[in-house]
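Notes continue from the previous slide.

Worked example: a multi-chain complex. Inputs as given:
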Amino acid sequence: MKHIDVKKLFANTAAYVGTDVTVCGWVRTARDSKSVAFIELNDGTCLRNLQLVFDREKFSDAQLGDVMVVGASLMVKGELIASERNGCEVNVRELTVFGSCPGDYPLQKKRHTLEFLRTIPHLRARTRYFESVFAVRDRLSFAIHNYFQSNGYKYVHAPIITASDCEGAGEMFRVTTHPWSTEHKSEEEYNAADFFGKRVGLSVSAQLEGEMAAMGLGKIYTFGPSFRAEHSNTTRHLSEFWHVEPEVAFAEIDDIIEIAEDFIKSIIRDVLENCPEEMDFFDQWVEKGLKDKLNHVLNSDFGRVTYTEAVEILQKSGKEFKYPVEWGCDLQTEHEKYLTDEYFKKPLFVVDYPKEIKSFYMKQNDDGKTVAATDLLVPGIGEIIGCSEREWDMDKLLDAMNARGMALESYREYLDTRKFGSVPHSGFGLGLDRIVMYLTGVQNIRDTLLFPRSVGSI
Ligand code: ATP
Ligand code: MN
């Protein structure tokens, strides 16, 4: 269908004024009077609506009846004219109605609550709020690829169905083709008879595969969905989220921290530059001062504190935390929030966590108590990146795995990376959905993607 994107008309109005244009879209608002009728049209290519003007002498009630309703879809042809108020508008000459929209269309009002919109996810993309979210999410994904591509990383695809559970990252969803049956005598027998001949599930992280790829390709990243059967019903956990995981050979913990900070700043800058209207929308309606916050982040160094120092800061804070703080405990959301929102007031790397609360593959520090791991915490959300240098010494890695009682035979290929030409290397994992929250001010991770999956809800 030959037509032009509304975005193009607004981006280069002068070039089109006085010419005939054909546009398509959905009616956002419709107003009628004796002499003229107006429709605000949105085609999804940009946040702004295009005003359509109908001369009532040329368009009868019968012709307009089906389109003067919110949600109807149409195509029009007419002259583009300059308008002081709207930038430009179309003086309609020809009208094609695609689909009218009956009165039970749920998006009649100008504003709806996010809770209500969550009950109609299939229609959310037709609101300004979600148009803005999806525009930012789209640009962010592009910016992420762009950052890695222009810095020499290779994009690799890790399997989604996997037999390795990246120990400790989270509960796995199981994948099976078995119908319900009581005939198997043991779990082993049940798994052995299944499609792959063993127990498999959906990947919780591509890290272990990513490490293997980096041991030949040097710098890689994966970018795909990860699945976690977590029962944590929070505003920042999904059962299916989009995971960005770079892995870098010949990089130690300080190198990867530098990369992570440069990466985060680069993608923030990209979105601010390329989604100005959407960012204005969030700044005005969702989080006041959002743009100032992000610009401040671009112009300052991220904070850095050791876990041990963080524990001291929390203990001296005089705050009544629900979960008391002592060395060795995992930091809870309330602790992370105090550190980022109240104490440091900016993104913060917490480094050198106790080895007991972190994964087996993290590099053990010389103190014998901590590992070279860091979480990047941001105000308002908490953790957005989990990062570490990987243990590349075979003996130390085996010690850590044995201490956790892990079945070494399941990790033979992974251990080969330490056996054959092992090198220092590091990587991190970023949740795309969480960085969307940070960049938009959206408070609930369920509002960052089209169809959120979380426990009990699909
Ligand atoms: P958290 O402590 O917040 O549960 P985690 O320690 O389980 O995070 P990692 O396993 O290190 O997180 O995963 C790396 C990144 O993936 C996290 O920093 C976060 O951005 C994202 N992430 C992890 N779990 C989820 C989830 N359930 N939903 C959305 N994003 C997630
Ligand atoms: Mn988790």
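Summary box: The CA atoms of residues 103 and 228 lie 40 Å apart. Residues 170 surround manganese (II) ion (ligand 2) (CB under 6 Å).
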